[in-house]
C-alpha cells in the first residue's frame, strides 16, 4: 500500500438501480475493512452528473473506482460507460462492470467500450462478498493507477 | 346351301350381333354413367361427355355440363395448376393424380383429385378424365397441419416461458437469499433461538429454490440454447464428463471404464452433460462398496446405443418411466440431495439427438441406463 492511500480513504462510486443490490455492494465493501468513502448513483444520469460536478472542482476527488451495473433506467450502464470513456477528465477511472447478466453479448459490448473488467454477481452471498473484496484488492492495492499521482 | 338357309344364318348372326351391341351398350352405361368416380371427356377445353358422379360432385345436372368449358369450374387460383398438368399429360401420355379445387353450383369450394389421359374421341384429340372428391381428406390434413403447428408453437412458447421465468426469477431470489444470508451472518445468536431457526429455514428455502431454478433453466436451455450438431468423439465426451466429476470419483473411490466409443453427430456440451449426469447418478446412488461404472456402445445401422451400467442401489421397476419426469425424486433430500431434474435433462438431451432413454434395474442389483443417438445427425424438433 502506498502512502497516498493511507492519507485519504479510497473513493468508490457504485452505480446500480436496485437499492437491494446497491446496499449489498455497500455491505460487502464495509466488510473489506479498507478505509473507503462510498458514493452511490441510481442510474447513468445521476452518476454522470456527480462525476462531472466533481471533475469541475479540482479540490474534490474523483472516485478511484467505479462499480457499474448494466440494466438501469434512463441512462443504462453501457451508455454511461461510453460517456465516461469518451470524457478526457474521466476516462482514466477504472470501471468494473458488476452485473447479474452472463450474456455473451453484454460482455463483448462492454469490453468494446473499454470497460476495465466484467464481473458477474455471484448468487451466493459469501461468494459475492469475496468477489467484491477481490475487486477492491486488485484495483486499489495490487495495481498502480494514475489517480495516485494526482 | 340354299339361299334361305344362308339368309337365316345371316339373320341369326345379326341378331347375335344386335344382342352383343345391346349388352356392350349396357355395360358401357353401367361402367360410365354409374361409376362412383367422376368420369368425362373433354375436347377443345369443353366437356363432351360427363357421368352422373362428376355432375354430382360439381352440383349440376349432366346436360348442364356438356358443352361448358371445363376450366370454368376450377377455382380461379388453381387454373394454372390444371393447365400445367394438361400440358404435362400431352407430353407424357398420362398424368399422376393431382389435386386442385373446384367451385360447385352452390358456390361451395371442394378439393378434388384428377387423373387424365389423352385419347381420340370421334377421330379428334381429347382428354379422358377421372375425378374424385377429396374435400374431407383435405380438411383432415389441414386440421392435422394446424394442430401440429399449434403444438409446435405451444412447445416453443412453453420452453421460452420456462426460460424466462427461471431466468427472471433469479434476480429477486438473489435478493431474498442474499439478505437472509446476511441476516444469518450478522444476527445469529444475537436474537432468540426462534429467530435463529426461522432465519435458517428462510436461508435453506431460498438456497433450494436457487438450485431448482438453476436446473429448470438448464432444462429449458436444452431446447432453446442448443448448439448445431457437429461430429463429436464420444471418448472425449466421457473423458470431459469424468474430469468434471473428478472429485466425486475420487471421494467414493469409483472406477469408471469404457469401451471404444464412436463419433456421433451431436451437441458436444449437451452430450458431456448427459454422460456426466448418468455417471454422477451411478456414483451418488451407490451401495456400501466402491462404485463400478461400465460404458459400452453398440452400433446398429444409423443408431448407436450406449449403456451405462453400475453396481448401485438399483431402482424399483415401477419407477422406470417416472424417473425421467421433471422434479421427480425417489428419496428424501436427507438421504440423497438433488432437485430431481438430472434425468429429465438427460431425456431432453437424448430426444433432441433423435434417440430414446430407458433403464433396466432391480433394487439392490445395480442399474443399466440405455440411450440411443441417431448418427445420421438430424436434430429432432
Detail the topology: elements first, then pairings.
The complex is a heterodimer of chains A (150) and B (381).
Chain A: H1 3-7, E1 10-15, H2 19-31, E2 36-41, H3 44-56, E3 65-68, H4 77-86, E4 95-99, H5 104-112, E5 117-120, H6 125-142
Parallel strand pairs in A: 1-2, 1-3, 3-4, 4-5
Helix pairs in contact in A: 2-6, 3-4
Chain B: H1 3-33, E1 38-43, E2 46-50, H2 52-58, H3 62-65, H4 79-92, E3 98-103, E4 109-121, E5 124-133, H5 135-168, H6 170-187, H7 193-224, E6 230-233, H8 234-244, H9 246-251, E7 255-258, E8 263-266, H10 268-284, E9 292-300, E10 303-310, H11 342-352, E11 357-361, E12 367-374
Parallel strand pairs in B: 7-9
Antiparallel strand pairs in B: 1-2, 1-5, 3-4, 4-5, 6-8, 9-10, 10-12, 11-12
Helix pairs in contact in B: 5-7, 6-7, 7-11, 8-10, 10-11
Please state roughly what percent of the residues of chain B sit in beta strands, choosing from under 5%, 5-15%, 15-25%, 25-35%, 35-45% or over 45%.
15-25%
The portion of residues assigned to helices of chain B is: 40-55%
Which architecture of the largest domain in chain B would the CATH scheme give at its second level? 2-Layer Sandwich
| Largest sheet: number of strands, sense, barrel closure of chain B | 5 strands, antiparallel
Question: If strands are numbered along the chain, what order do they take across the biggest sheet of chain B?
Answer: 2-1-5-4-3
Physical arrangement of strands within the biggest beta sheet of chain A? 2-1-3-4-5
Head-to-tail CA distance between termini of chain A: 16 Å
Structural class of chain A: alpha/beta
CATH architecture of chain A: 3-Layer(aba) Sandwich
**In angstroms, what is the radius of gyration of chain B?**
37 Å
Spell out the helices and strands of chain A N to C: HEHEHEHEHEH
Average pLDDT rating of chain A: 84
Radius of gyration computed on alpha carbons of chain A: 14 Å
Shape of chain B: elongated
Q: Strand percentage of chain A, roughly?
A: 15-25%
The biggest sheet of chain A, with number of strands, parallel, antiparallel or mixed sense and barrel status, is:
5 strands, parallel
Amino acid at each position: 500500500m502506498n502512502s497516498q492511500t493511507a492519507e485519504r480513504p479510497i473513493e468508490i462510486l457504485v452505480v446500480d438501480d436496485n437499492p437491494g443490490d446497491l446496499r449489498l455492494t455497500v455491505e460487502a465493501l464495509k466488510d473489506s475493512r479498507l478505509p473507503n468513502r462510498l458514493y452511490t448513483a441510481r442510474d447513468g444520469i445521476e452518476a454522470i452528473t456527480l462525476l462531472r460536478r466533481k471533475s469541475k472542482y479540482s479540490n474534490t476527488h474523483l472516485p478511484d473506482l467505479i462499480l457499474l451495473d448494466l440494466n438501469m433506467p434512463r441512462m443504462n450502464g453501457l451508455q454511461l460507460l461510453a460517456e465516461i470513456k469518451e470524457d478526457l477528465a474521466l476516462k482514466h477511472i477504472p470501471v468494473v462492470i458488476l452485473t447479474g447478466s452472463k450474456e455473451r453479448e453484454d460482455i463483448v459490448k462492454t469490453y468494446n467500450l473499454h470497460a476495465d473488467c466484467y464481473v458477474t454477481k455471484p448468487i451466493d452471498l459469501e461468494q459475492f462478498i469475496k468477489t467484491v473484496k477481490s475487486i477492491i484488492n486488485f484495483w486499489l492495492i495490487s495495481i498502480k493507477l494514475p489517480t495516485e499521482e494526482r | 346351301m340354299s339361299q334361305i338357309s344362308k339368309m337365316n344364318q345371316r339373320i341369326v348372326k345379326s341378331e347375335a350381333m344386335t344382342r352383343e351391341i345391346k349388352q356392350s351398350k349396357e355395360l358401357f352405361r353401367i361402367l360410365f354413367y354409374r361409376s362412383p368416380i367422376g368420369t368425362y371427356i373433354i375436347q377443345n377445353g369443353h366437356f363432351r361427355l360427363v357421368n352422373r358422379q362428376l355432375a354430382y360432385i360439381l352440383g349440376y345436372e349432366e346436360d348442364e355440363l356438356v358443352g361448358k368449358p371445363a376450366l370454368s369450374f376450377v377455382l380461379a387460383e388453381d387454373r394454372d395448376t390444371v393447365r400445367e398438368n394438361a400440358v404435362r399429360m400431352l407430353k407424357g401420355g398420362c398424368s399422376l393424380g393431382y389435386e386442385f379445387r373446384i367451385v360447385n353450383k352452390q358456390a361451395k369450394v371442394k378439393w378434388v383429385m384428377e387423373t387424365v389421359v389423352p385419347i381420340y374421341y370421334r377421330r379428334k384429340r381429347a382428354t379422358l378424365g377421372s375425378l374424385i372428391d377429396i374435400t374431407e381428406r383435405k380438411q383432415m390434413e389441414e386440421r392435422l397441419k394446424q394442430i401440429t403447428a399449434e403444438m409446435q408453437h405451444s412447445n416453443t412458447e412453453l420452453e421460452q416461458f420456462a426460460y424466462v421465468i427461471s431466468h427472471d426469477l433469479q434476480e429477486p431470489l438473489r435478493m431474498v437469499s442474499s439478505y437472509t444470508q446476511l441476516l444469518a451472518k450478522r444476527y445469529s445468536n444475537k436474537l432468540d433461538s426462534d429467530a435463529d431457526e426461522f432465519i435458517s429455514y428462510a436461508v435453506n428455502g431460498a438456497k433450494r429454490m436457487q438450485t431448482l431454478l438453476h436446473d429448470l433453466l438448464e432444462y429449458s436451455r436444452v431446447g432453446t440454447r442448443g448448439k448445431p450438431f457437429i461430429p463429436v468423439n464420444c471418448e472425449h465426451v466421457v473423458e470431459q464428463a469424468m474430469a468434471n466429476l473428478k472429485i466425486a470419483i475420487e471421494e467414493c473411490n469409483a472406477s469408471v471404464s469404457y469401451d471404444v466409443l464412436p463419433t456421433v453427430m451431436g451437441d458436444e456440451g449437451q452430450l458431456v452433460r448427459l454422460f456426466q449426469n448418468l455417471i454422477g447418478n451411478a456414483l451418488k446412488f451407490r451401495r456400501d462398496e466402491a462404485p463400478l461404472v461400465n460404458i459400452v456402445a453398440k452400433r446398429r445401422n444409423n443408431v448407436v446405443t450406449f449403456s451405462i451400467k453400475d453396481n448401485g442401489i438399483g431402482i424399483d421397476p415401477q419407477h422406470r418411466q417416472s424417473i425421467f419426469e421433471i422434479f421427480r425424486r425417489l428419496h428424501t433430500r436427507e438421504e440423497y440431495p438433488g432437485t430431481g431434474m438430472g434425468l429429465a435433462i438427460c431425456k431432453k438431451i437424448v430426444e433432441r439427438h433423435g434417440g430414446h432413454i430407458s433403464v433396466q434395474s432391480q433394487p439392490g442389483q445395480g442399474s443399466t441406463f440405455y440411450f440411443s443417438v441417431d448418427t445420421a445427425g438430424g436434430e429432432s424438433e
